[in-house]
Amino acid sequence: MEKNGCPPDVMTFNTLILCCSKNSKTSKVVELLCIMAEKNLSPNATTFSIA
Question: Which terminus has fewer CB within 10 Å in the chain: N or C?
């Protein structure tokens, strides 16, 4: 995605977090939240409601 000039946004991460959460991939959720922080993206209310 980023290689094509389309950086992920909060909505992208929310979608990934939701999928991981539904599939009991808790460690992946934490990893995604860390990647968000590295990219200076702040979780929003939606992020916290699904994480």
Answer: N
